[in-house]
Design a protein that fits this description.
183 residues, alpha+beta, Muramoyl-pentapeptide Carboxypeptidase, domain 2
């Protein structure tokens, strides 16, 4: 993404209070080498909001699509919206292609504010103090047409970050941090 495309991406985000220069620089650094369109389809189970959008097209991230994803993946408890890392969307896109589905990812948790994360950590040792959810780099998901075990295996095979398995709660965690597994 050139500086003008990054500026366009950043211009779509000022009302959300993101550090515009930092986001533009970051988008420049993570620009994929392929220009093929990428789509994300998500359904936030807590708000019943949905997004079905091409978030990457013609060699660049699409600012309006990223803003829509940020909104739908917000902390539903506080209403706080945070920049969701496009690499997480890339991971979800690849995961949907791997399991051969066009169904929406059901979002159990996307962004978590520090306040929400602290509250959840107090309730469960399974919630990390410095969760990648607070950085917009993690999501807890399931797919309606893919068994949780198959989704988990596919996420593990990608080796693109952390993968947690929560069959008793019917979701997996994926993030774009270091490769690691639990659950």
């Amino acid at each position: 993404m050139g500086s003008s495309a990054a500026a366009t991406a950043v211009a779509a985000l000022p009302s959300q209070g993101f550090a515009q220069d930092a986001i533009g620089d970051y988008l420049d650094q993570i620009l994929p080498t392929t220009t093929a369109p990428r789509r994300v389809v998500i359904h936030n189970l807590h708000t019943d909001e949905r997004v079905d959008a091409v978030y990457f097209d013609d060699g660049r991230y699409v600012p309006d699509a990223l803003a829509a994803v940020n909104h739908v993946m917000r902390d539903f408890r506080t209403g706080d919206v945070h920049f969701m890392d496009p690499q997480l969307l890339d991971l979800m896109h690849t995961l949907s292609k791997t399991v051969e589905t066009t169904q929406p990812f059901q979002i159990i948790s996307g962004y978590r504010s520090p306040k929400t994360n602290a509250m959840l950590h107090e309730r469960s040792a399974g919630v990390a103090v410095n969760s990648f959810h607070m950085r917009g780099m993690a999501t807890d998901i399931r797919l309606p047409d893919v068994s949780l075990a198959n989704l988990h295996r596919a996420a593990l095979a990608l080796q693109r970050g952390g993968v947690g398995y929560y069959p008793e709660s019917d979701f997996i965690h994926v993030d774009i941090g270091p490769v690691r597994t639990w659950g």
